[in-house]
Design goal:
This protein is an all-alpha fold. The chain is globular and about 50 Å long.
Length: 225
């Protein structure tokens, strides 16, 4: 029982970070739930271990990043066969892309730790590192700005007005800072229940979207009951 408890405590942070990453996909189009961007990162903020420098904190950042991008860019694996020369590459290509993009979240975790060690407040360090890495991700021949958190606020003109001053990445910094500050108000035990509830909601919805998307693209998805 003691070992089982230890195993649960070691797995819980990774699971919470993965669920937090998957939940981010619901803040973007076509969902009309961009308001979730104000709270969706709270599990990651608390359980990543970046504040304390806990063992595995960079791995948690990478897992979060992979779930973040896989949940956001899943549609690449569902493109119509006519849109690709080699349709069988859809899923491998989407997976490799997300594995690559997750490296930027690992970098974000590393920079956050460096800033925290330099005595920058954790919440501010996380927000600045996030915004800086998002900007970095958009540069160069491999630049990929899709999925920047600031884009989640496009349905809210009142919020996006600040983009004229701070840009999309500034809005991302603002959203991460809000999440990090709100995380101070949440008790971890209650957050476990919230994360589990989010998972129970997200998995069936994502599965349903996969089935519908495959149907539209002409593929057939068989579900074993």
């Amino acid at each position: 029982m003691h070992k089982a408890g230890q195993l649960g405590r070691s797995i819980l942070p990774a699971v919470a970070c993965i669920l937090s990453g998957l939940a981010v996909s619901f803040v973007f189009w076509p969902y009309r739930t961009g308001f979730l961007a104000y709270i969706v990162l709270i599990p990651f903020v608390i359980f990543s271990g970046l504040r304390e420098g806990r063992k595995g904190c960079l791995l948690h950042s990478y897992l979060f990043g992979f779930a973040y991008f896989m949940g956001t860019l899943y549609w690449i694996a569902m493109l119509d066969k006519e849109q690709m020369t080699m349709p069988w590459l859809r899923l491998p290509a989407a997976t490799v892309l997300c594995l690559y993009l997750a490296l930027f979240m690992l970098l974000m975790g590393f920079v956050t730790r460096r800033l925290v060690l330099a005595r920058v407040p954790y919440e501010l360090a996380l927000a600045l590192a996030w915004g800086g890495v998002e900007y970095l991700r958009s540069l160069g021949p491999l630049g990929f700005p899709w999925g920047s958190l600031g884009y989640s606020q496009t349905p809210y003109p009142v919020v996006t007005q600040q983009a004229a001053l701070i840009g999309t990445y500034g809005i991302s910094v603002w959203l991460v800072l809000l999440n990090a500050l709100l995380a101070r108000l949440v008790r971890p035990k209650r957050l476990v229940v919230l994360a589990l509830a989010a998972g129970l909601f997200a998995v069936p919805v994502a599965g349903g979207k996969l089935v519908l998307g495959a149907a539209r693209s002409g593929d057939t998805v068989h579900l074993a009951l």
